[in-house]
């Protein structure tokens, strides 16, 4: 889990920022639903998508190397990521 997902503490609370909307899904869409199983469904879907779309390679191919010292135009990042398979 730590390989793909940051801790849920401090500023790394990605599920709280992006995944809580999954909790509003009708639980009937999840077989054998039990409380909070949507958290696992969200994390699995996110990791599968991450493994399918190599966003770091797409950025590198456009000479955009993520780091804390450089800034890139948002439009350049968008254009690089648009080249990923749909």
From TrEMBL:
Signal peptide: none annotated. Gene3D superfamilies: Ribonuclease T2-like. It comes from the Eukaryota. GO terms for cellular component: extracellular region. GO terms for biological process: RNA catabolic process. One of its GO terms (molecular function) is RNA binding. Coiled coil: none annotated. SUPFAM superfamilies: Ribonuclease Rh-like. Belongs to the RNase T2 family. This is Ribonuclease T2.
């Amino acid at each position: 889990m730590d390989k793909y997902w940051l801790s849920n503490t401090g500023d790394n609370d990605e599920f709280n920022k992006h995944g809580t909307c999954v909790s509003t899904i009708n639980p009937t869409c999840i077989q054998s639903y039990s409380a909070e199983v949507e958290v696992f469904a969200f994390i699995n879907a996110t990791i599968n998508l991450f493994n399918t779309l190599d966003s770091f390679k797409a950025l590198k191919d456009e000479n955009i190397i993520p780091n804390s010292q450089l800034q890139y135009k948002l439009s350049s990042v968008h254009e690089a990521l648009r080249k990923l398979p749909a």
